[in-house]
Structure formats: C-alpha cells, structure tokens
C-alpha cells in the first residue's frame, strides 16, 4: 500500500514543529510496510491535488499566509475536486483559517479564504493571543480521542459548523469558544501545534487510515497494524496530570 501525500507550502508554513507531523506519518507508515510517497507543493508549483490521498498544510505567521494566498485561491477548484474525491486534508492553524470565509490579520487586513465553510477568523479584540498548552476531546467519526497540543494564534475563529472537539484545557477556536477545530469527515482543521501528530499517535493513525481509504475503499483505522508508542504516551501523561484531565 502507498500513501501519496502533498505537503503544501512546506517552506513557509511550519510553526512550532509542524513538520513533525510529516515525520510521524512517514515513520508510522514505514513501520507497517506502507510506502510514504511525499511530494512538496510550493507557491507556483503545478500539482493536481485530487491525485493525492492526503494533503497537509502547517501553520504560519500573517506574512506567510498573505504571501501564499493568491496561489491557494488559484487552486480553489482543484481543492474542491480533491475534497469531493476523498482526498483527506489536515490543516494546522494558519492553514485551517484560510479554508474558511476570511482571515483578519493582526493589522486588520481581511484576507479572503477559500470559503468552503461558514467559519471565519477575526482578530482578537482583546489585543492578545491564545497561547499555551491545550487539551481537547475530539470526536472523529464517532471515535472519541483526547488530543494534546500547543496553540498560539491571534485569530478568533467563529461560526464553526462542525467543531473537531470540546476544549478541556486551553482556548481553542477563540478565547471563549469552548470548542476547537473543524472536522467534517474530509477536512480536519485544528489550532494544535506542538506538533500535533507525534503527541497524538492515535490521531496520526486515524489520518493515515483516512488517506488510505481514498484508493482502498472501506479501509479503516482498525485495519492498521498496532504500533507501540511508549514515549508519546509518557509525554501525554505529563500534560494530563498537570492540567488534571482524566486520560
Ligand atoms: N497568523 C495566524 C494567527 O495568528 C496563525 C498563527 C499560527 O499558525 N500559529 O492567528
């Protein structure tokens, strides 16, 4: 089996170790004999995203979001086709924000998003940012998962029709949202850096399974061979204990 993955804007969208997500996907695929076929797609580079099983975009500062925006918008039709044809999208923070209606940068400039979903991101009126460790309880196709990460965003995302999960510690989509991220079965957007997947091996496997399902219809999480991840689990334990969240 093969997981054909596009890492978009790899050279500019990479905050707080987001590239660790790619390293984790690669390791967890290769440990199982699944070929991890990685392609980077930068600004101006030709790619048919609907040909990929998985597309990943990391987070970035306002400046980077602004610089990639014309390229992202030029791919709108192709991205819609990819989503429609079951390519799975994993989007972190700045990448997540740009799939909604708009992103208002810290200087109040409003960048139009792809507009696929009703959520939109405005700048915080309180002139501060949501920063710190975060723990959420996510619901992924009925599978409940506690996810840990680190968030640092000025953007306040509102009108999220399908949140990824409930905040147990930290902020999430906005200072007082109580909810975090977006997930509709095809696109998973989240504010969790840290990076996300090394700290949440169960989610890494969920993403691998979603990607593999594109060319192997019916493929599920349960079909993946189990892998031990003692180090990640120890790190998670520390955060659960510190914030008194039951594992
Ligand atoms: N620039 C965006 C914000 O501040 C996204 C930041 C990020 O990706 N961490 O909200």
From TrEMBL:
Domain CobB/CobQ-like glutamine amidotransferase: 6-200
Catalytic activity line of the entry: beta-D-GlcNAc-(1->4)-Mur2Ac(oyl-L-Ala-gamma-D-Glu-L-Lys-D-Ala-D-Ala)-di-trans,octa-cis-undecaprenyl diphosphate + L-glutamine + ATP + H2O = beta-D-GlcNAc-(1->4)-Mur2Ac(oyl-L-Ala-D-isoglutaminyl-L-Lys-D-Ala-D-Ala)-di-trans,octa-cis-undecaprenyl diphosphate + L-glutamate + ADP + phosphate + H(+); L-glutamine + H2O = L-glutamate + NH4(+)
KW Cell membrane (keyword) present: no
Leader sequence residues: none
Membrane-crossing segments per the record: none
Stated role: The lipid II isoglutaminyl synthase complex catalyzes the formation of alpha-D-isoglutamine in the cell wall lipid II stem peptide. The GatD subunit catalyzes the hydrolysis of glutamine to glutamate and ammonia. The resulting ammonia molecule is channeled to the active site of MurT.
Protein known as: Lipid II isoglutaminyl synthase (glutamine-hydrolyzing) subunit GatD
Species, as recorded: Ileibacterium valens
